[in-house]
Amino acid sequence: MKQAENCTDPVDVRLGTRLAALRAERGWSLGELAERSGVSKSTLSRAERAEISPTAALLNRLCGVYGQTMSRLLSEVESEPAGLVRAAEQPVWQDRASGFVRRSVSPPHPGLRGELVEGRLAAGADISYDRPPVPGLEQHIWVLEGALDVSAQDTEHHLEVGDCLRLRVWGPTRFRCPGPDEVRYVLAVVLP
């Protein structure tokens, strides 16, 4: 008698992980999700552990409970993000008016919550944002060269080489390079 080979589809694994994350984001137990969806706890558990490949009907029920379309859910898990992003493949964008250069070191991906950005501001450059793209966005700002002044939540922070500011962004922020040299920093961005 032949032993069954492990033929788990990588998409099913990513889908199961995403389904578990959606449930965890809401703080629901398997029992609570079962009540809301009309799907048994054992089926939900097996889908989250990729022991079964969810049917379209099952995904449709879960998407209804989570308030999103099936195409959105599937787009979040269809492709695995590249593990290695070569320097030559990291997009660079420059705002010539403000003296800001942004390198997307680890670009965003629908299946990941975090990204890394390298920022450079010319001496005297001053950038203000009226609000975050996502309320409660988590940011870690680590200065590699120069100095950086950051304003957030009505608090001023002066960062020098090696300093790291960690915060959740709810309102306006301001990044300013006091000089005399440019500042280079790493910005880790994590979706809530």
Shape: elongated
Order of helices and strands: HHHHHEEEEEEEEEE
Total count of strands: 10
Give the N-to-C terminal Cα separation. 49 Å
Name the beta content range: 25-35%
Low-pLDDT ranges: 1-6
Please provide a written account of the structure.
This protein has helices at 10-26, 30-37, 41-48, 56-66, 70-75, and strands at 92-95, 100-106, 114-121, 126-129, 137-145, 148-152, 155-159, 164-169, 173-176, 183-190. By secondary structure, the chain is α+β, with helices and mostly antiparallel strands. A hairpin with a 4-residue loop joins β1 and β2. Residues 1-6 have low confidence and may be disordered.
Q: Keywords for this structure?
A:
four-stranded antiparallel β-sheet, alpha+beta, 192 residues, elongated, disordered N terminus, 10 strands
Topology:
Elements: H1 10-26, H2 30-37, H3 41-48, H4 56-66, H5 70-75, E1 92-95, E2 100-106, E3 114-121, E4 126-129, E5 137-145, E6 148-152, E7 155-159, E8 164-169, E9 173-176, E10 183-190
Antiparallel strand pairs: 1-2, 2-3, 3-10, 4-9, 5-8, 5-10, 6-7, 6-9
Short description:
With 192 residues, the chain is of the alpha+beta class. It has five helices and ten strands. The protein starts with 9 loop residues before the first helix and ends with a strand.
